Amino acid sequence: MEYGEISKEIWDRILSDLSDPKVYVKSILDKADGVGLSPHQVPVIRYWLIDNDEYLGTLGLRKELTSEIIKREGNIGFQIRPSMRGKGYGTKILELGLEKAKEVGLESVYLNCSKNNTASKRIIEKNGGRLLSTSIDSVSGEKSLHYIISF
After folding, report:
1. Which residues of 52-87 are buried (b: 16+ CB within 10 A; e: fewer)?
2. CB contact at 8 A, 61 and 45
3. Over the stretch 43-87, which tens digit does the pLDDT of each residue have?
4. Are the C-beta atoms of residues 115 and 142 closer than 8 Å to each other?
5. What is the dihedral of CA 128, 102, 27, 88, to 10 degrees?
6. Is residue 3 in a domain?
7. Quick one: which of 14, 18, 77, 98 is 20 to 30 A from 3 by CA?
8. What are 100-134's pLDDT values in tens digits?
9. What is the pTM for the complete model shown?
10. φ and ψ at 10, to 5 degrees?
């Protein structure tokens, strides 16, 4: 199992959800519709990057933002399986996610990454990301980079 930047607890939850694919898919669709969210969450649409039936990564798109989500997550978050990194899939999934953002009517999107995550920084900038600001993440204590991509 590849854990990458996702915590073991999240992977365990994903794997338990996958034991019943109908439940897992329903939970994704519910989150996209805003069903069952806590007060600090907003709806998120999930997309998977798949090549020849192989799962490569995922992207979450949020049409709505709160001030906290802007600081911590932004409109788009993406991740590529560790064994598939460095092959251009991160650039591709963000490119496709930006197309989806335009389709739902967004004129710009906010993205964040850790200063130490040079791959994500490069992917965001390659897709037109402009650095807006930096901050210290209140949870991890790491320096975060805040980007905007305007269409």
Report:
1. eeeebbbbbbbeeeeeebebbbbbbbbbbeeebbee
2. yes
3. 999 999 999 989 899 999 999 998 888 888 899 999 999 999 999
4. yes
5. -30
6. no
7. 98
8. 999 999 999 999 999 999 999 999 999 999 999 99
9. 0.81
10. -70, -45
